[in-house]
Amino acid sequence: MTVHKQQQTPRPRRADSERTVRTILEAAERVLAANPAATMEDFAKAAGVARTTVHRRFATREALLDELTGWAARQFADAVDAARPDAAPPLVALYQITANVLRVKTDWSFAMNRAAEDSHPEAARIHADVRATCIRLFRRAQEGGALRPDIDLDWTRRVYYALIHEAAKEGVVAGADPDALATRVVDTLLRGAGTPAAIAGM
Fold first, then answer.
1. Helices first, then strands: H and E counts in the chain
2. In the predicted model, what is the mean pLDDT of residues 177-183?
3. Greatest CA separation for the chain
4. Which CATH architecture has domain 67-192?
5. pLDDT for 105-158, tens place per residue?
6. Which residue from 13, 27, 28, 19 is spatially nearest to 66, judged by alpha carbons?
7. CA angle, 134 then 86 then 135, to 5°
8. What digits encode the pLDDT tens for the residues 25-51?
9. Residue ranges of the domains in the chain?
10. Which of 177, 57, 82, 183 has the alpha carbon at shortest distance from 133?
11. H-helix or E-strand spanning residue 67
12. Using CA atoms, how far apart are residues 82 and 103, in angstroms rounded to an integer?
């Protein structure tokens, strides 16, 4: 009896397709960061592919923007998770999250700003999860004595987000190093801008 071995079907097309999609999304991010009104033809030219290639992956410009927004949101979530916010020492996690997120916000500035509008269901869910993670991290920092026991954790989170937003703008405009910006953000959050004398006089 002849035994026919089942042939393994190679999957290079899928890998190639994923690489093509990534190339198109990266090109679209670069183009949109400079010109939010850019067209599908602009994306194709920047990606070095035919316009028909872009249209095969994305039926419309809005479909491409939605995928770009979701992609950036997933990068954002991965950046937070990579810092092990629920396991690493709180201040170590806080610094690492800050540096990781600044890299994502710098590299995907257009898409991250779009995701922040909460109009994309997946991005909105991811941002809600990250907010909850941030509060848990701040609570751990509070319990460990790094934050004052009477501090409002949600207010602290909003201040932290504002600091990251400003640092990310500096990263995009001036090309500042994310690690240096992360140090500045965390230092400002924990120490503030006042002197010990000013704090004592309050």
1. 10, 0
2. 92
3. 94
4. Orthogonal Bundle (1.10)
5. 998 989 988 876 657 888 999 999 999 999 999 999 999 999 999 999 999 999
6. 28
7. 20
8. 999 999 999 999 999 999 999 999 999
9. 14-59, 67-192
10. 82
11. helix 61-82
12. 13
Token pair of 169 as six digits: 């703008």
Q: What gap in Å lies between CA 83 and CA 95, rounded to an integer?
A: 9
d(CA 74, CA 77): 5
Q: CA–CA separation, 52 vs 123, rounded Å?
A: 28
Q: Quick one: pLDDT at residue 118?
A: 59
Domain 14-59: state its class: mainly alpha
Q: Which residue type, as a one-letter code, is found at position 64?
A: L
What proportions of the chain, in percent to the nearest 5, are helix, strand and coil? 75, 0, 25
CB-count burial class (<10 Å; 0-12, 13-18, 19+) for 145: exposed
The CA distance from 30 to 58, in Å, is 18
- Give the residue from 166, 157, 158, 172 showing the smallest Cα distance to 185: 166
Closest CA to 182 of 66, 101, 79, 69: 101
- In whole angstroms, what separates CA 67 from the centre of its chain? 14
User: pTM value?
Assistant: 0.82
- The residue assigned the tokens 């916010």 is 85
Are residues 80 and 130 in contact, defined by beta-carbon separation less than 8 angstroms? yes
- DSSP one-letter code for 108: T
